């Protein structure tokens, strides 16, 4: 018989609190290195200068323990909960919300969540509720990933219910058009997550989860890896450049997540992320 491990949700609250702060203060190493590499490769003098400023901004944020960006984002939590874990001491989701509440308070992070968005649009004043995506996985551990998703980049994302006959060519057009239309709004260089398949709600989640991959990583499926390379090349050929001021570095990377879909459908979503690709992970 499998032994069940108990975990007090107070540990979840403390972990989420820490993730909210560190994700907003410390740019992931893979993103930092990608910005440095892009700075060296960028042909536009203005583009090189902008990339240098982005690197300096990340250095200042890490050293002074201040946010990388004033938009400290909507807290999106991906929770992988082991099926052999028994959570005690309270409700799991409330523990996550409390972690966000404490993290955004103690970290002096901007609160950007508005309730009753269709009319009152009142700030909740603690950046809750978080968006929580929970999956049950084997094992007795809880893995929590916090993504701080800013409004400027999220607003430029797209959902495309394509016809199956449009195929890959139609998807390429939709991705490139999404980035082209976004222009400077999402603070390029961007990172692009692409979801293919599933249903209308699943494909947008696939696109967002794709952003959790390390910049510079290669998809294990060579066919999808080639698709990612093609999209990155076409996006960077747009010439939008760093912060929209021109250059070859419009995107740092493109990631695709794919799953089966209905024979009559071709859902495809594009989730745009700014250069401040903020996410951190902890395992309890």
In short:
This protein is of the alpha/beta class and 284 residues long. The chain has helices spanning 9-25, 29-41, 45-64, 92-106, 151-154, 167-182, 200-210, 222-236; strands at residues 5-8, 74-82, 85-88, 114-115, 122-123, 131-137, 142-149, 158-162, 190-198, 251-261, 266-273, 279-283. The strands form four sheets. Strands 6-2-7-12 form a four-stranded mixed beta sheet. Strands 8-11-9-10 form a four-stranded mixed beta sheet. Strands 1-3 form a two-stranded parallel sheet.
Give structural notes.
The chain is an alpha/beta fold and 284 residues long. The chain folds into 2 domains: 5-25 and 68-149, no CATH class; 152-279, no CATH class. 39% of the residues lie in helices and 26% in strands. It is built from 8 helices and 12 strands. A hairpin with a 6-residue loop joins strand 4 and strand 5. Helix 1 packs parallel to helix 4 and helix 2 runs antiparallel to helix 3 (45-64). The chain is globular, with a radius of gyration of 19 Å. The model has no long low-confidence stretch (mean pLDDT 97).
Query: Tell me, what's the shape?
Result: globular
Overall number of strands: 12
Number of helices: 8
**Low-confidence segments, ≥5 residues, pLDDT <50?**
none
Number of domains: 2
Q: Major sheet: order of its strands?
A: 6-2-7-12
Radius of gyration: 19 Å
**Secondary structure category:** alpha/beta
Strand content: 25-35%
Q: State the order of secondary-structure elements, H for helix, E for strand.
A: EHHHEEHEEEEHEHEHHEEE
Largest sheet: 4 strands, mixed
Q: Name the average pLDDT.
A: 97
């Amino acid at each position: 018989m499998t032994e069940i491990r108990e975990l007090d949700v107070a540990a979840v609250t403390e972990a989420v609190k820490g993730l909210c702060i560190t994700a907003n203060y410390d740019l992931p190493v893979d993103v930092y290195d990608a910005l440095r590499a892009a700075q060296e490769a960028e042909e536009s003098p203005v583009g090189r200068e902008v990339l240098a400023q982005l690197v300096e901004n990340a250095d200042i944020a890490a050293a002074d323990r201040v946010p990388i960006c004033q938009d400290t984002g909507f807290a999106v939590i991906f929770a992988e909960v082991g099926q052999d874990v028994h959570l005690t001491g309270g409700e799991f989701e409330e523990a996550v919300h409390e972690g966000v509440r404490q993290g955004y308070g103690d970290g002096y992070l901007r609160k950007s969540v508005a309730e009753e968005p269709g009319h009152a649009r009142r700030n909740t004043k603690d950046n809750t509720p978080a968006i929580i995506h929970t999956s049950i996985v084997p094992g007795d551990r809880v893995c929590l990933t916090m993504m701080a998703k800013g409004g400027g980049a999220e607003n430029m994302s797209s959902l495309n219910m394509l016809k199956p006959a449009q195929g890959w060519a139609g998807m390429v057009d939709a991705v490139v058009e999404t980035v082209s239309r976004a222009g400077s709004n999402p603070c390029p260089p961007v990172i692009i997550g692409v979801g293919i398949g599933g249903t209308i709600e699943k494909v947008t989640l696939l696109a967002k989860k794709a952003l959790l991959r390390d910049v510079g990583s290669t998809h294990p499926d060579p066919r999808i890896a080639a698709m990612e390379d093609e999209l990155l090349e076409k996006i960077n050929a747009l010439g939008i450049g760093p912060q929209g001021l021109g250059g070859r570095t419009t995107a740092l990377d493109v990631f695709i997540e794919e799953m089966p879909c209905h024979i009559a459908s071709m859902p495809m979503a594009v989730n745009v992320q700014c250069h401040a690709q903020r996410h951190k992970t902890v395992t309890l």
